[in-house]
Amino acid sequence: MNINTYSIKRDANKYITKNIRVWELRSRDGSDIVKQDYVVICFAQYARDVYNKAFNINSAFRTPSWNKHEDGSINSKHLISCAIDGWIAGVKQQDLANLFYSMGLIRVGVYASFVHFDTARSPKWLSQGNFRKVNVPYLNRVVSSTKNRNDYLVAIIQYKLNILGYNCGTEDGIAGRKFDKAVKRFQKDKGLAVDGSVGINTWNKLFNWHNSIKVL
């Protein structure tokens, strides 16, 4: 995880990704401090880009007092800043959850009005959902250590490579030496052109290796 700390007073309107600002991640008890894992925000941004609709966040970072107010578990991943509860207007919760599940998130929960997802690696938790693998759209943007090097998609790829056992380092959205090395190892293992660039073929091997059914 890559936990960053922000101040509502100082950073409320700061964009962490293209469309998601600090104030959207705040604890609802008025705390000035906001802490959040960068890559979980990137998953929300990706869903926003896929559906081309706002991603509405109900809950992200929680202080212990607000988590108690919300009757959250003492082991809630909101407390360690790596969880988001959210929804997209007009998109079924199960469809949104299927997208996150197909991208490699192992902790996804479907609820009546939102989807919970977090970037914790364990324990495995798939709650209240009839999950299935679906197509994970390629956004027609190559990322590598030399092209689109600073991109939120890099963080998502870093996360996926890390959980597959390819050491990509910190999931910070910056394609550096570890990213390049991990991508090339993955490409070699999968019989792809070994160039360190994540284009459509490498993307599909990472996310769409299954027989997928399009979600859109």
Describe the protein in words.
It contains seven helices and seven strands; from the N terminus they run E-H-E-H-E-H-E-H-E-E-E-H-H-H. It is an alpha+beta fold. The protein has two domains: 3-127, Muramoyl-pentapeptide Carboxypeptidase, domain 2 (2-Layer Sandwich); 152-207, PGBD-like superfamily/PGBD (Muramoyl-pentapeptide Carboxypeptidase, domain 1, Orthogonal Bundle). Strands 3-4-6-5-7 form a five-stranded mixed sheet, covered by helices on one side. Strands 1-2 form a two-stranded antiparallel ribbon. Strand 5 (107-110) and strand 6 (115-118) form a beta hairpin. The longest helix is centred in the N-terminal third of the chain and has 14 residues, at 38-51.
List the helices and strands and how they pair.
Blueprint: E1 3-7, H1 8-11, E2 33-37, H2 38-51, E3 56-59, H3 64-69, E4 83-87, H4 93-103, E5 107-110, E6 115-118, E7 125-127, H5 152-163, H6 177-189, H7 200-207
Parallel strand pairs: 5-7
Antiparallel strand pairs: 1-2, 3-4, 4-6, 5-6
Helix pairs in contact: 2-5
List keywords for this structure.
single chain, 216 residues, alpha+beta, Muramoyl-pentapeptide Carboxypeptidase, domain 2, Muramoyl-pentapeptide Carboxypeptidase, domain 1, two-stranded antiparallel sheet, 7 helices
Q: Report low-confidence residues grouped into runs of 5 or more.
A: 211-216
Number of helices: 7
Structural class: alpha+beta
Please summarize the sheet with the most strands. Answer: 5 strands, mixed
CATH topology of the largest domain: Muramoyl-pentapeptide Carboxypeptidase, domain 2
Task: Calculate the terminal CA-CA distance, rounded to whole Å.
Answer: 29 Å
Overall pLDDT score = 93
Q: Using DSSP, what is the number of strands?
A: 7
Spatial shape: globular
Give the class-level CATH name of the largest domain.
Alpha Beta
- Helix percentage: 25-40%
Query: What is the string of SSEs from the N terminus onward?
Result: EHEHEHEHEEEHHH
- Using only C-alpha atoms, the radius of gyration works out to 17 Å
